[in-house]
Amino acid sequence: MNYTEKPLNDAELSGIKAPEDMEARLRKALESAPVRKVKKSVFNTKWKFAAAIIALSLFVGNNYHALAYYSKTLLGFDKVLTSTLSQLNNQGRGQVLNEQVKLMDGTVLTINGLMSDENQLLLFYTLNNANGIPELDSNIFAPVQMKGFRTNSSPGIGGASPSKDGTEVKGYISFEPVSPLAKKLTLSYWEGIPGTDHRQLSEIVLPYHPDEALTTIFKQPMDQSITVDDNTLVFKSITATPTMTFIQGEVQVESTKQLDQAARVLDGLQLVSNDITCEKRKGGLTRIEDGRYEFIFQYGPLTDKLQSLQLILKEYQDFHESSMRIPLTDINKQLFIEDKPVKIAKVEQVDKETEVTIETESLVRLEGIKLVNKSDSMSWVTSGPATYHTAADGTTRMNVTFVFPNREGWDYLQIKGFSYPKHLGYKSDIPIK
Question: Alpha helices of 269-353 — where are they, by DSSP H?
C-alpha cells in the first residue's frame, strides 16, 4: 500500500486531539525506564595523561640543572654564614652535592655543596661524630687545595659552628676561583691519624657544574691612580659578583718604608656603592718583581640597582720611626715624640706580670713597644682596653696598659715608632658602563 504525504491545513490540525490519558502514560513510561550511564572515552583520557608525562619529562630532561638551581637550599648553616651568603643560600643559589666520606677517626665528612663565581669558590661541609668533635681542631679536617682542569686553588677564609652537644660541626671555606671549564674538582685535605700527632693527606673528587656558577654583576678595567708622598697607587680593575667585590692594582716602591706606607694607605681605602660603604674584608700586596707589587682587596657585594660607585680615601695611619727610651722611673713625666705628647702613667707588678700604662693623644698609636736594659729586650704579651680622659689643655688623652712577663732588671720603656691619621680627602668616581 502506498501512502502519499499530504500537508494538513490549520482546520485539520485544530481538529486533532490527544487521548485523555496520554500524559499519565508518558510519565509512567519515563519513570520506569532504566538509567543509562554515559561512558567517557578511556582512550582519550589515557593518551592525554601520557602526553602530559612526556612533556614534563622533556622539560625536566632539558632543564635538570635549572630546576635543581632554583629549588635547593643548604640547611643548618644559618649560624655560620655571613648575611650575604645567607641571603644567597635562602635564594637556593649554588650546587648541592652531599658527597660523604668517613675519616680515619670515624668522623663522617659531608661536602654539602658549592657556591662559585668569578671571584671565589665556597665549599660547605659538615662533620659528624657521635663521640664528639673537638672544636676548631685542624687535625680532623684541614682543606689544602682544590684542583681540576686549569684549576689549582688555595683555601682562604671561612667559618665553622659546632652543635650544642658537640657531635656536629657545620662550616664553609673559600678557595680561589676555579676554571669554568672544569667538570670535576679534587679536594685535598689533611686528616689526623688516630693515636698519633701525625696527619695524612687525603682526597675526595667532587662533581662540578660550571653552569650553576653565579653571574658576574659588574666588571671593567680602571684607569685611576692616587699619589701619596712618594707612592703612586694605580688601580687597574674591579670585579663584582654576588658574593664579593675585588679591586686590583699595582704600586712601585723603592724601599721597605715605601712598601709599608703603601700598605697603610690601602688599608684606609673605602669602596662606596650608591652612597653605602661596602664592607672591607681583607687584602694585601704580593711581590711581582723587584720594586713592583700587585695589590688585591676584597669588599662585600655592591648594592642592587647600581647607580654610583666611588673610591674614597679620607685618611691613613702615617707612620714615623722613633728610637725613644723612657726610664721606668719617670712616672707621669711629660715627654714628646716629635710633637706628640707621651708619658708613663703607671708601672706596677701584678701577680707574675709587669703592667706599664702609657698615656698618649687619643689618635696616636705607639708601635714597637718593649722593655729593655743594656743587653736585652722583651716585648709585651697582651694589652688592656683603652680608657679616655680630657687633659688640662682640653685635648682627649688615651691610656693603654701593656702587660709584660714579670722579670727584674729592666731599665727603660722603648718605643720604635708611632702613627696617627693623616688627612687625604681623596675621592674618585668609577664610571658605570
Answer: none
Grid cell locating 366:
705607639
pLDDT in tens, 92-148: 888 999 999 999 999 999 999 999 999 999 999 999 999 998 765 667 899 999 999
Domains of the chain, earliest start first: 70-212 (2.60.40), 218-307 (2.60.40.1630), 320-420 (2.60.40)
Q: 182 — phi, psi (to 5°)?
A: -75, 140
**CA dist list (Å): 345 to 62, 340, 359, 361, 397:** 75, 16, 6, 13, 12
Amino acid letter, residue 18: A
CA pair distance 119, 302, nearest whole angstrom: 13
The kind and range of the H/E element at 59 are helix 42-62
Which 8-state DSSP code applies to residue 331? B
What is the C-alpha separation between 306 and 432, in angstroms, rounded?
8
Residue 396 parent element (H or E): strand 396-405
DSSP character for 306? -
| Element counts in the chain: helices (H) and strands (E) | 6, 26
Taking the model in full, what pTM does it have?
A: 0.67
